[in-house]
Automatic annotation (TrEMBL):
Residues 36-224 form the Fe/B12 periplasmic-binding domain. Coiled coil: none annotated. Gene3D superfamilies: Nitrogenase molybdenum iron protein domain. This is Fe/B12 periplasmic-binding domain-containing protein. It holds the Pfam family Peripla_BP_2. It comes from Gluconobacter kanchanaburiensis NBRC 103587.
């Protein structure tokens, strides 16, 4: 009886210790993965920030494209992996990272090889970014690094706000990867920077060029990836737009800043806040 009582005395503190370890992100962290393949641009970017370089087996073809990737220079030190299942048979990684849109052969191969297949969905707001970071960090066994990145992201986000947030200005967004519909990432960025989207007359969130000229917003935001990529980017160069929107009323955002949900997305927010401050007179123009 004495030994049984002694067991109960020590069992509860030990269980509490283990539970605390899970919450602290150390004792219950996933195993560190040493053979990681990323097949998606957004997982590429997070992987490059979170993983030990020696653990990265391959990245997606877009990783080294500086028009698309914010980590293109760092990515060039790693092999490029075609985003299909056949290459996974050759490399045989111990975890595969991808987006929700992927080739059908990928989950088939990871299932046969019994390899964890982690899919990262698109984000709808800045609030989704910590979840994205935590998902990738846990998948590769780098939970502590993930939490450090999340804290740094949160600290920077708290410091970003317009000087005159009460002055809500209008903005229209056109170009690559800048969806104009309510509820997307760009809407969240604009709201935090002191803007609201101009009313759209079309179901897909777009606006006619004539309407844009006749009822101009305070700011026209254009998103560019590279010349000739899409009709939306061609519209940016229309002479009527070039003549109507100049100086502080025009902001060109690199497409790579809103392509994925990473801490670098805050660079887009910083640019939008600076534009708001210029328009409200809080920041002098050069």
């Amino acid at each position: 009886m004495a030994s049984k009582t002694l067991f109960h005395v020590f069992a509860v503190p030990m269980a509490s210790f283990l539970l605390w370890g899970c919450f602290s992100g150390s004792a219950c962290a996933g195993p560190v993965r040493t053979r990681i393949v990323s097949l998606n641009l957004c997982t590429d970017e997070l992987l490059l920030e979170l993983a030990d370089p020696s653990h990265i087996l391959g990245l997606s073809p877009l990783a080294t494209d500086c028009a698309e990737s914010v980590r293109c220079e760092a990515a060039r030190a790693y092999p490029v992996q075609r985003p299909d299942g056949e290459n996974l048979v050759v490399t045989h990684p111990d975890v595969v990272l991808d987006g929700t849109w992927h080739r059908p052969t990928v989950p088939l191969v990871t299932d046969v090889l019994h390899v964890p297949f982690v899919q990262l969905p698109s984000i709808a707001s800045l609030a989704d970014i910590p979840t994205q970071i935590r998902t990738v960090a846990h998948a590769i066994g780098e939970d502590a690094r993930g939490e450090d990145m999340i804290r740094a992201f949160g600290k920077r986000l708290e410091s970003l706000h317009p000087v005159h947030p009460e002055q809500i200005l209008t903005a229209t967004v056109i170009g690559a990867n800048l969806a104009g519909e309510e509820g997307g990432l760009i809407t969240d960025l604009l709201k935090r920077a002191g803007f609201r989207l101009s009313a759209s007359e079309r179901p897909d969130g777009t606006i006619a060029l004539e309407t844009l000229i006749a009822h101009p917003p305070d700011l026209l935001v254009t998103g560019m990836i590279s010349e000739g990529v899409s009709l939306a980017e061609d519209a940016v160069h229309h002479p009527a737009l070039r003549d109507r929107f100049t100086g502080m009323h025009l902001l060109a955002l690199p497409g790579r800043l809103t392509m994925c949900g990473t801490p670098d997305t805050l660079d887009a927010l910083t640019a939008l806040i600076a534009a708001h401050d210029r328009l409200t007179g809080a920041e002098s123009t050069p």
